[in-house]
Amino acid sequence: MDKKTKDLVDKGIMLPLMEEFYTIQGEGYHTGKAAYFIRVGGCDVGCHWCDVKESWNADLHPPTIADKIVENAKKYTDTVVVTGGEPLMWSMDYLTNLLQKNNLKSHIETSGAYSFSGKWDWFCLSPKKTKLPLEEVYKEADELKMIIHNKSDFDFAEQQAAKVNENCELFLQPEWSKKEKMTSLIVDYVMKNPKWKISLQTHKYLNIP
Prior knowledge:
Blueprint: H1 3-10, E1 14-24, E2 34-40, E3 63-65, H2 66-74, E4 79-84, H3 93-101, E5 105-110, E6 122-125, H4 135-138, E7 143-148, H5 152-161, E8 169-174, H6 179-192, E9 196-198, H7 202-206
Parallel strand pairs: 2-4, 4-5, 5-6, 6-7, 7-8, 8-9
Antiparallel strand pairs: 1-2, 1-3
C-alpha cells in the first residue's frame, strides 16, 4: 500500500472492503429488515468459531473509496449495516457522515475492542472473551448480542449486560455449529430471565447471504 492510500485509509476515506451486498438482516433486533451490508476487512479478535475468517487479514481486501460504497448503497435501501471483520479498527467518522448526508441509516455490529468512532443510528455490541470491549463503548450500545457457544457463555453474557445502559436490548444467539444444543438451553434461560431475547441466524435458515 502506498503512502497516499495508507493516509486515506487511516482517515477512513478509503476502507478495506471485503464485500458489499443487499440482503435481509438475519440477526438481532432488526431481523427481517432489508439492509445493505458493508463487510470491512481486518480483525484480530480471533473467535475460533468465526464464520468469516477470510475477513481477518485486511491486506487481502482492496482499499475502496467510501463515497463509492455509499453510492452503491443508495441504489437499494435506506439502511446500511457496517460489519466485519472488526469495523472499529478503522475510523468510521467519514463513512457515517456520508451516510447521514445521504439520508441513510447507519448500523454497526462490533466487538467493541477498538475505540468508538462514527455516528450511528443503531449500535450492536457483540463482546468476545478473546478481546473485551473498551469501557467507552458499552454506553453506546443499543443492542447487546451475546454468542452462546458453551454453558459458561451465559455467565459472560450477564457480566457484559451489567455494563450496558438500561435501555439496551439484550439478545442471546446460539453459535451456529452448536445451534441444536445451545438453542434449547437459551430457550430455558430466557424463560427464566425474560430481560433477554433470542436471536437466531435466520439468514442461514433462509439460505441467503
